[in-house]
Design a protein that fits this description.
The chain is mainly α and 136 residues long. It is 58% helix and 3% strand. α4 packs across α5.
Length: 136
Amino acid sequence: MKTPSGISVARWETSSRAFTGASAGLLVLLALVPLGFGPNTTNKLTQLFILVILAVMWNALAGFAGLVSVGQQAFIGIGAYSTVLLADTAGVNAYLAVVLSPRSRVRSRCPCRCWPFGCAEASSRSACGSLPRPCV
């Protein structure tokens, strides 16, 4: 594609096709890791990639955008809490709990609409007691 200034922009050259194919192959290999390796290796790789996701989110927010926010850490933390709660209390498979946790109503088992770290509303403090308590 030629621009008005005469600069040529090329998309999907040989190198970009090769990189896309290699990335797709790597993704397929990583998806097959639980079948070929033990639970320890799968656990270590899962933890590594969660930390990589957090680092990339932090770099995108603070590095490129210049924003200082910890909302993404809270989002990951609440998602992890609901995943573990589903896996432990409901007996759901851990990988299935990752998919189901955003759609679950983990908070609804508490009488006062508590978040994992205490009551969400000041008016519900009387139902929870004098101090906010975790919903466990």
